[in-house]
Amino acid sequence: MLKQFLLKEWKEKFPFFILAILLFVGLAALAFSGKAEMAGFVAVLLLMAMLPLIGVMIGSSSFAAEFKNEAWAYLFSRPVKKWAVWLIKYFSQLTVLIATYIVFFLLLKLLPKAALEIIQSSSLRMGRSDVSLFSLSLLFSILAFTIAFSISILSDKQLIIFLCTALIGIGSAVLFEKYLALLFQLSPRTRLQGTSFQGALVFLTLSFVAASILTLEKSDFSQQLKKTWLFTKFVAAFLVISIVISTAWTLGIFHSEKKNIRSNIIIAGDAAYFGTEKGVFRYARAQNKPKKIDGTGSALFLVDFSVGGEKLAVLKYKLFKVGKAKMEAPVLLVMNKDGSGKKNLLEDYLKKDSPLLDQLLWPCLISPDGGKVAFMTRDWKNKKYGICSINSDGTRLQSQPLNLPEVDWLRFVGWEMSGKSIIISALSKWGTAESNSEILSFGLDTGSYKILAKNLRNPYSARVSENGDSMVFKFYDEKDSKEVLAKVDLRSLEKEEIYRGDSIDGLCLSEAGDKIAFIADKSKLGIYSLPEKKMKAIKAIKELKAEKQSSLSYSLSWVSDGKKVVFSDNINGGNYLRVFGEDLRQKKAIKMLFSPWRAQISALGNIVFVPNFMTQELWTVDIDTEKWQKIY
Question: Total domain count for the chain?
């Protein structure tokens, strides 16, 4: 019987399959006629509009033959349960839709690279995850097909079924997305993920399956109004159940996730600090485990912190009641380094009409003496940045616009020694031929800025010395196609070239700010003395494998209070921490427990911190005893 049903349904729905194939042939012809980019956009249109539409067409005529020939009595007289009849017809027709997607998927593999890049880059951003259009299209198509199939037991008028399917499907999907967003608002510790919405679409689909099967089982098909009313009641009941299950699904996804490490490790004095989705932690030399000094409670999961003097600044978001409404508002806490004496510096400034409520505040940087905190603002509507500063006691909030043309990305580098200016790296016109990275000195009182350097290579690598009198950075010299490591005196603005080569990686300034270590030309380790203004040592390192680590930029750190340098490397297929003295002689190589994929290592005394971002764990290793310990 299953074979008969399958052949019957394929015979009836075969025209829709042919229609899809013709659309695919048209797409292929467009792609190979030299209009690959246009073909990519057409493919996206097919995914998000035409294929769900074909799903509706297939499902809307599912029971048309039974209405037309008044064959309900004959269908139910067969020795098969009603629910079995429904499922057999459903899965028989679903194979047509799935076959359509398989053909489309195979066609995509044949398209030119330009078309594929457009399709692959097209995704829907939900929370912290991207949902591919292909998976989203498949779920929407199955949902549309299921709704149309379910409604088709009520009427043979395909136009009515089509309109009802469009209204119910789009309305329900939007309703579920809004509900999940509301859940995010009500529970700040939860966030909307792509898997949450995809799960909701599955539960929504199953609601219509259950409602249609029960209607088929319970109703009298001679009474159209009662049958329609029964179906409506079942759909409403199962939609409520779907909302409950979607809520549990979303909360379950969140609670099962690892609480990610959200920052690099900051070394300050005799302690190390790091941020995670659980909060900000402090690891002191005398302790073997970190201590939480501030919980996040962040609605947006944006948490940034910095350490200066004896103070710690934490910038995060929490839900507050502003007037009669609840909204995400920034919290800028300043506290002692042990977590005591917390004070929210923005508490008196976040009123109902405060301009800060309409902007994203991110990131923050406390001054080296702990007396002042700077933070960036971004006006999403007008796409403008600003720089604010406030004293650590909550007084004298200043805000200055940053009038940079077409700026896409900003980052604090450090404070100048006067405390009146802050160093910023900026990326403008990203993704274009005119893209440029530069470093600015921004006056907090005046709002004016000076450009210190242009054509940066990796603006993240720029470093300001501890006392704020100098900065090291690397840039690209287009004339001789070389990377240049340079130093600028922030008082006189005089520049000094340190090293010129094919590549420069892993810039690391010592805690005292007097030495910088780096990897040069993918084969040499160099140490430069800033006070002496000379290269202390540079030497080719045996078995240096930088060229084989395409996914990993070198991460260096000073260890043993600035007497040694440590970095991760690959030796004979194994991952090691290699320790060198100031004379650039290797002291030891410590076998690593995992691959340091994009790990930014840091050191506190003889303790090296190595994050494993693949498992969201933080490990330490004592370079003297070579003992490893997982601390988070």
Answer: 2
